[in-house]
Amino acid sequence: MSDVHMPEYLPPDDLLADRLGLTPAEFKRYRTLELVTVSVAAQRDGDVFKITCQLGNRVWEGLVENGRIAFEQVRYLRGKLSKPRAQDLD
pTM (2 decimals)? Predict the structure, then answer.
């Protein structure tokens, strides 16, 4: 198993909640219900991290470099369900 270098700084939940248009309490509740997903991926030699936070069709993406958000954007996906419905899996 290789060592995974995680960023020292991740945006706080309050910031991510704001970017998705939620209150911190809603964000925490939706995250507990697994409706909000947050993923981290290393970019360019592990010095820059891409963080993706998604709730349904709302996606916040940010690049964290040296503990600061260097770039961020919010996208709204069209024609995509947040999770497949049970009847769609049959």
Answer: 0.72
